[in-house]
Amino acid sequence: MKQSVEREFSKNAKNYNEYNIIQKQVAKKLISWLDTHPKKIIDLGCGCGEIYKLIDWELDNFIGIDISKTMCKLHPKSDKIKILNANYEDDLFYENELKNHNFDLMISSSSLQWCHNIEKVIKNFSKISNQCAVSIFCEGTFKTIYKTAGLKSFLPKYENIIKIFQKYYNIKFEIEKNKLYFSDNLSKFRYIKKSGVSGGKRKLSYVDTKQLIQNYPLDYLEFEVLYIKGERSPLN
User: Fold this and answer.
1) What is the pTM of this model?
2) What SS3 class is residue 197?
3) Dihedral pair phi/psi, residue 103, rounded to 5°
4) From residue 85, how far is each of 48, 67, 90 by CA, in Å?
5) What does the DSSP 8-state code read for residue 35?
6) Which domains can be identified in the chain, with CATH numbers?
7) What average pLDDT does this structure show over 18-37?
């Protein structure tokens, strides 16, 4: 799925600020949920800089990583910011670029749900980050769409994500369910396509998609977001 996610976000990068309504809300809550003002931050799936733009305290060092080259170009730049166009799941990249760093905080907003192996990512980054703060879209997102289409969600179960983080951090978590209202069904599906929330995952034919747009019964889209923050476990 790596290539489809990369294509989806790169293709829609210029439209992203217009359509990422939920992602902006989620990032804002994630930043407001922090208990401290960390000076050294690494942002996994940094995109065009939504997290960085919300930080209102002085930083010593900020590293952002994103798989989309187009998104990386749109991220704010300064002498304290380093943006890396890379796949943070790549072991070689981690070993060569990050292993010897130490961060106050690893943060990730609306990105980790695309991981092939989220536990590997958390295990690696828990070695170089004292704290974590993440928001992850979970399987309750677009629940009625999947039910109407007869498909199984590819997004993770929040229970499984919580268990993974508990192995490496002492955490607090919150599950939030959001609704985003639209005037018509076509607008809903246009939002899904342009926002990148689908990650480029397509399983329906054109005919099936058209039927889904016509038959979708709600005037809103559903989102289920897991928020986690924590301190590194002394055992790691």
Assistant:
1) 0.88
2) coil
3) -115, 150
4) 12, 5, 12
5) S
6) 2-232 (3.40.50.150)
7) 90
